Amino acid sequence: MRKFEPSCKWKRNEDRDIIEIHLKEFKKDQLKVQISNCGILKIFGERQSNASTKSKFYKEIQVPSNIYDTQAIQAKFINGCLYITMPKQKTLLLELKKGTSAEELKIDRSPKSEFQLAKATVAAAAAGVAAAAMAVLVPCVVYMCKSAICHVDN
To answer: Where, if anywhere, are coiled coils annotated (predicted)?
Structure first.
């Protein structure tokens, strides 16, 4: 059994991210893509390389449900390339595009919600969201980080 790490690209767009995995020697029926209830995207494949050897790979990617619409994730295998399309949550995109103020976001201040919003803000920054939207979200994250530290110390 030969395990390997396939070549992989992550393309980030405003409304979706696409993972492109190069698997030239594989066939569609040798691949499997699953999303768990916990938001873990599992990608794996196995094929017979020759009479005595199999090639195998396995990848896990955390897919936050507050950023991505996990029910709409799709996978396509075209010309030796596996494309996994992960649409972003429409509510997050609309709020960021409108330039919603921090007060209008109606932030749930529970530690779990604060952590999820912090992750969404980091993802928005990585995706290149407009500076105005980031100006609204960054103060929220700073407040949440201070709040989370207080929760830990108590």
So the answer is: none
Our count of domains for the chain comes to: 2
**CB 124, CB 132: distance < 8 Å:** no
Q: Which residue has the higher pLDDT, 32 or 90?
A: 32
- 């992550």: which residue's tokens? 10
Range of the domain at 111: 90-153
| 25, 80: one domain | yes
Q: What is the pTM of this model?
A: 0.60
How does pLDDT run across 89-103, given as a tens digit for each residue? Answer: 887 556 556 665 545
107 and 81 co-located in one domain: no
**Which of the listed residues 61, 87, 113 is the one where a domain comes to its end?**
87
Q: Which residues contact 102 (CB under 8 A, 6 or more apart)?
A: 136, 137, 139, 140
What is the Cα–Cα distance from 100 to 107, expressed in whole angstroms? 12
Token pair 């509510």 is at which residue? 91
Report the C-alpha gap between 48 and 45 in whole angstroms.
11
- Write out pLDDT tens, residues 114-143: 556 566 666 666 666 554 444 444 444 444
